[in-house]
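Quick start: read one record
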Amino acid sequence: WVREQYLQLPDELPDRVRALAREWAGQRTNPYDVAKAIEDQLRTYPIEYEIPVAPPGADAVDYFLFEERRGYFDYHASAMAVLLRTLGIPSRVVVGYQLAELDPASSETYVVRERDAFAWVEVFFPGYGWVEFNPTTGSPSIDRGTTIDPGETPVGSEEPVPPDLLPEDPGFPVESEPVFGSGQEGGGRPWAGYVLGGLAALALAGAAGGWLFWQGLGAGLPYPAQVWEKAVRLAGWARVPPQPHETPAETARRIGSAVPAGRDAEALATAYARHRYGRKLLTAAEREDLARAWARLRNRLLARILRWR
């Protein structure tokens, strides 16, 4: 799925862009080393905000790399993603903000302004997920402390790097002795009623606690965030958990492929993204539609959990 979406390139991409990627990769066979080499090369392209746009019909990345040879973060990030994709290394451009300064009134809050907007690159490595790179000079490169080594896969190879192996589950010990017993043959068991009553009370308390926990999920959050939080929690219990590298839309598509409620999952993800990133408020009608979509998705996920298949 990564290769299907994150290796796409325009058909008219100039051949010299592909040749430059191979030149900068050199003799390196490790995709991480290739990404780092291309990042380092792009960081030699100076920052410049006042630059002309590419001529009509020209490829913007080609124009940046060979003609203008200067630009700002959008240009650097786009060039790195394209160069890596020509070598068969999945990558994507990410936009957001740099954390520039702490709020003087709080040591845990950052002040983020429009001038802090930024773009960088994420590269996918099997077994590791999306790893960030910053090809733009003038801002710090990403210091990871140690070099990650996602294997010796040749550049563009179709052979995935195996993820780290997880230890086998040792299982649970089997109780060989009865938990309750009188130690006598026959006779009454007056404690049985107390035991059953206690178990019933524990079950009732557990159910009440679970209900309170469920109701408290997303408490204080706007409705789109509440239902999305509950949806991904249920999806995790239904063995379709969200992955760290996924956007809400990608998570919704995967949930929709596991249960027959794809449109409802996408509706929840869309409403969440609109609120989270666009601060869009729901109308009364939209809230009703979202509530119906959530109810249908919840029922589908619960059915999958109860069937456990």
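The CA atoms of residues 23 and 38 lie 10 Å apart.
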